[in-house]
Write a structure and sequence with these properties.
It is built from 6 helices and 9 strands; from the N terminus they run αααββαβαββββββα. The protein is of the alpha+beta class and 201 residues long. Strands 1, 2, 3, 4, 5, 6, 7, 8 and 9 form a 9-stranded mixed sheet that branches. Strand 7 and strand 8 form a beta hairpin. It is found in: Cell membrane. Its main location: membrane. InterPro entries: C-type_lectin-like, C-type_lectin-like/link_sf, C-type_lectin/matrix_domain, CTDL_fold, NKR-like_CTLD. Keywords: Cell membrane, Disulfide bond, Glycoprotein, Lectin, Membrane, Signal-anchor, Transmembrane, Transmembrane helix.
Length: 201
């Protein structure tokens, strides 16, 4: 009899009311103290990685285009000048002698054109039209042809005639006395090249 009573007492002690089970609230265990710091480190690493990627993309793009933002604000060549291969060319309407033509070009920050490539020569011959135009090539009597800047002509194209100053005609290059009058062609580097030369290295 006593054993049965002890068993009943044990059942009552182990019994938990159903209402308490239904209304019980789950209390999660406390977080590890280092967990927020770990998440913060992950966020910082992601932000740093993103920033580095943006900077690398910016500098690579800048290196590819080699473009100064200020270059976008100015035209490559002045008004009435024609751009070709990073040069600006002025084809005159007036006719003057070789000396006056060079002085005019100097007043524009330029020189009578110095032909550096056959492509440039083809461009000048096409664009000048049917008129003769002085170029920046001359010689002293019995001396070699030289450009305005003092460099010797490399014989890349023939020059006909016995004059001391060269000009372009419909067939190529020829020469005449410096006092005869013709149109002329000035040339100078375009604005992009000038700005790069002036910018500190």
């Amino acid at each position: 009899m006593e054993d049965k009573m002890h068993s009943a007492d044990n059942i009552e002690k182990d019994f938990v009311p159903t209402e308490l089970i239904k209304n019980s609230v789950y209390c999660p265990s406390k977080r590890h103290p280092g967990e927020p710091i770990l998440k913060l480190h992950v966020v910082l690493i992601l932000c740093l990685t993103f920033t580095v990627c943006v900077l690398v993309t910016f500098f690579v793009t800048r290196a590819i285009f080699h473009q100064n933002p200020s270059e976008c604000l100015v035209p490559a060549c002045p008004e009435y000048w024609i751009g070709f291969q990073r040069k600006c060319f002025y084809f005159s309407d007036d006719t003057k002698n070789w000396t006056f033509s060079q002085r005019f070009c100097n007043s524009q920050g330029a020189d009578l054109v110095q032909v550096e490539t056959l492509q440039e020569l083809d461009f000048l011959l096409r664009y000048k039209g049917p008129y003769d135009h002085w170029i920046g090539l001359s010689r002293e009597e019995g001396q070699l042809w030289k450009w305005i800047n003092g460099t010797e002509w490399n014989s890349s194209f023939p020059i006909k005639g016995g004059g001391e100053c060269a000009y372009l005609n419909d067939k190529g290059a020829s020469s005449a006395r410096h006092y005869s009058e013709r149109k002329w062609i000035c040339s100078k580097p375009d604005m992009y090249i000038q700005m790069r030369r002036q910018s500190p290295k």
